[in-house]
Each structure stands twice: as structure tokens, then as C-alpha cells.
What does this fold into?
Amino acid sequence: MGLWSLALVKPMLPHLLPLAGAFALGALILAFPGRTALTPDQRAEVGIAYMKLKLPGAERALRAALAAAPAQPRAGLALGMWLTRERRYDEAVAVLEQARTAAGPQDLEPALALAVAQQLAGRTDAARALFGTLRERHPADGRAAFNLAMLALKRSDRAEARTRLREALGKAGLNERQRRDAGVTLRRLEAAPGAEAARPEKK
It folds into this structure.
């Protein structure tokens, strides 16, 4: 490897080495199931690494981690997110319900992932109720408000959508795409006829 190639790879090593290590552990698990003594956290790391790399063994590794420690929410959260990505929404809901119970009511991530899976599975009322609970329980995070805005748009409640989008944009938690989509959607809604009366007064 030339110096130029090494210079490109070197900054990536802190990110590549953990994945490589997890990949190697995963290979051991899949080759010798039941013989590899790993902690539940290590098994979860393997599955998460496989998921990030979109490898065929991701689901198997995550299920192995979950089976080894059903009360460990990290593997359940990762498996639920994988199933959601694969559009197996009902399966995702079942796994994420277990992960949420294991994590406890104060843990935002499993509950948020569950609400998203419920929404995609067509369980709109359950998703809206859970997003509402999370919005109240985690007021500094804007993701629940963002999702409530999307649900409001689906039922043509533009006033509610505007309110929740403004709220979401004023908080942390949104990723770059969500923040961009929220801004674009809010501007479109505020430009619509009749939107002026719904805008909050400037102080």
C-alpha cells in the first residue's frame, strides 16, 4: 500500500477496527454456535456491526444476542430497527415492545423505535399515543413532535402539523434529513392559503 493510500485509510482506522473486530467475533459465533463465550454486550456489538455493514448474518447475530440475554435491550433495539428496515413491521413491533419493557419507561430510543414501527405497521392510534407520551416525557428531544407532525399531515390537520414542526425545529434530536424535511414542509404549510391566521404572533 502506497503512502497516498495509507494516508486515506489511517483516519478511518478508529471506525474500521471495531467493526473488523466485531466481524471476527461474529464469524466465530456463526461457525461455533454455543461455544463462543461472549458477554451479552459483545454479542450485541457483533449484531450491530453486521447491521451497519448490511451483512447477511445481521439478523442471525442479533437474534443470537437477544436469545443469550432477553432482558438486554440493546440487542432487541438493534434487531427491531433491522426488521423495520426490512419492512417486517409486525415482527419489529413485537421485538421492540420487548426491548422497551427491558429498557424501562425512561429510555427514549426503544420507545421511539417502537412508535415508528407501529406507525409503519398501520397501528396509527397506538403510534400517536406513544409519540405523545414521549413528547411529554422527553421535552428536549424533537423527534416525537416531528413524527406527530407527519401523522397530522396524513389526517390533513395542517394547523397541528405546523405547531409540531415549529416545536420539533426548536429542539435537539432531529437528524439532518428530518431537520431539512421539517423546514421544507413548514415553509410550504405557512405559504398555503389561510396559513397567516395560524401563525404565532411575534413578540
